[in-house]
Specification:
- This protein is mainly β and about 475 residues long.
- About 5% of the residues lie in helices and about 35% in strands.
- The chain contains seven helices and 29 strands.
- The strands form seven sheets. The protein has a five-stranded antiparallel beta sheet, covered by helices on one side.
- The longest helix is centred in the last third of the chain and has 7 residues, at about 375-385.
- It is globular and about 50 Å long.
Amino acid sequence: MSSRRSWKHQEFVAHGSKVTCAALGKKSGRVLATGGEDMKVNMWSVDKPNCIMSLSGHQTPIACVRFGPNEDLVVAGSQSGSLKVWDLNQAKIVRTLTGHKAAVKSLDFFPYGEYLASAAVDSLVKLWDLRRKGCIMTYQGHSGPVNSLKFSPDARWLVSASDDTTVRLWDLSAGKELRQFSGHYGPVNQIEYHPSEYLLASGSNDRTVNFWDLEKFALVSASEAATAQVRAILFHPDGEVLFSATQDYLHVFSWEPSRTHDTLVVGWGKVADIAISQDELLGISYQQGSVQVHVVDLKQVAPFGVPPPPTRGNASNVAAVSPEPQRPIRRPPTGTRRNFVRSASTATKLKEETEGEAPSADEEGNDITNRADIRSPEEYRQVFQQPVKPKSNNAHRNSPAAHKPAADLPSMVGNMNLITQEFSKPSGLNVADFLPVRDTCPLPVPRLTHPLLFARNPIAALHPNQRGRSVQSCKRVI
């Protein structure tokens, strides 16, 4: 087994100019979006050396980028404050939104429905309806740039973190601030909800991570001071620990009680985003026009595994603190803390105050400006395009193997009572006389849609030359 705990997986030139932002897809952890001063958003797949697709349309450098929950959408905010949403499956732009007056700092998609939240240097938090192409609510309260925002897993709240050292919780149904959390001594850079519990984590320039109880609206605990300012945080999918990424380091924390399980040197520089893919944690960073992808093997990180003993070969990965031996984490029960209910049926109805902000002519652009340049068609189909089921010309019909003689459908004949109420039956004739008979007409089900069956007067529906024929003749006509 390899003794490496972390390594640089790949490095590549992402843009012809400086890279300004980068984000990993949280669902798979294997797709990557980068934004640059060249005003483009480039799409990548981890392990693939080439750009899959390049998205154009912004008129100013890209400031922020974010994948949708299913990685089928990507949104990018610009230095001028505009937003553009692309459908990756169809490789086209679907929305252009304007309203912010300064660079966009953070973006997040609503868990259920076509809504989007954005935060910017102008200290505003905006909620957008992607169907109406406009802003439906603006939340004001922060006194500095808003660095991060997230929807709660149950879609009831929106939380934001700012340079003003506060974290604010917004009630989406009431359209107002529900609670303000103060406890950091520097700008708050990142916030993250626990995957199940009513718990919120916030990471700050003061090098600590605070854990907040969202039932009692109180501080649960604070982590030990890290090696540098907190740049990215992420709960493990099972919710037992939190990963905190600082410059060149990864820290593993729990909160009840507060504990540092492990700290290791990764060497990823100013990390921009982290994500988990199976038993690996991926981190991305950028410098000038290049992007680096680093990998951490979680099987060798406490408390999930036992780190290897320090050797000259893995000295760069030696933990800065003594890691604990491998053992299951057993936090004391919280007692009354509830879990998020993840269901679209429980999603809160958002309070809306439509502002009627429409895209400007310059930002809306045209098909030439707003385009998706697919650089690698084969990789694009594999990574972003959903398989399309072939359409059959006879899709409305049953397959031949499913066809049965009409006489073998007693249930359908029984249901004809509903039709007989609409018939004006002539004397001496019954509806059954117009149904197919096994011996004379073994027809498939679609033939039961003959006009005679649904005519108010079946005899009147016959051709004039056929009205005088016998009932047996009528059976042959059908």
